[in-house]
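Reply to thread "Modeling small-molecule complexes from scratch"

Following up on the discussion above, here's a worked example others can learn from. I took a protein sequence and the SMILES for fe (ii) ion and predicted the complex. Inputs first:
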Amino acid sequence: MTETSRRVELNGKSITIDDAMREAIRAELPEIDWIDDAKLRGDVTDAWAAAVASSNLESVTAMKPSGNYDSRPLKHGSQADHIRSVTRLAIKIAEEMDQLMPDFRYDRDLLIAGCLCHDIGKVWEFDPVNVERWKADPRRAGMPSIRHPAYGAHICLTMGLPEAVAHMAAAHSGEGELLVRSLENTILHWADYTFWRVLEAGGQLVDDDTWLGGLTSGRAGQPIK
Ligand SMILES: [Fe+2]
């Protein structure tokens, strides 16, 4: 695949996305190739490449593997594994309903793109530099100042992703209780919660979170509404 470099402004940084960055993202999130539409596929790749480059993180995999910055992480597996698994779970849900209900319709490309981008804002919420700054003075900018759904929507819109994908980043979690979720976001929401709740019940989250000296609230992957 030949592509040209693209320059974007994100988090106060001027970022030039090149093919090496894109290749690294596609290696971490191979389900990107499941997106049929070439532009959407490229935009999802570029969004992640820019998101990682805008942070102090080296990769998707480098992020703490948890639902929130202060919730218990996975014993095994990475944040990339979470995003990939949620995408595959969501597709399975949609395919099951599609096979069962003759008039069930969903947008497969949008579902995959939205699932792959749903936690893209974690590059802000899970950036150790940000978390240390918030810990030092929680009343200055908040703790976290912006949760990953809001920052994820910011990235999606900045990178020119469809409104429906930005909506999935913005409202897959508790924020979505304040609005009507799209069909694809409803599938994502339940796939995401299933991932964390099932693994919590299966004893797959660490008991004692020691990340950055210990922040855990004891919660599982998602905020309690
Ligand atoms: Fe998630």
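What I'd highlight from this example: Residues 82, 86, 118-119, 192 surround fe (ii) ion (CB under 6 Å). The two ends are 44 Å apart (CA to CA). Questions welcome below.
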